[in-house]
Amino acid sequence: SICSSAPLGMYVSTSGSSEATLCEVGHFSDELGAVTCDSCAPGFYASKIGFTECSYCEAGTFTESAGSSVCGLCPSGQTTSGVASREASDCVCEAGSYALSSTAVDPLSMTCLSCPGGMTCPLGSSDNTSS
Question: Quick one: which of 83, 92, 102, 108 has the most CB atoms within 10 Å?
Answer without folding.
Answer: 92
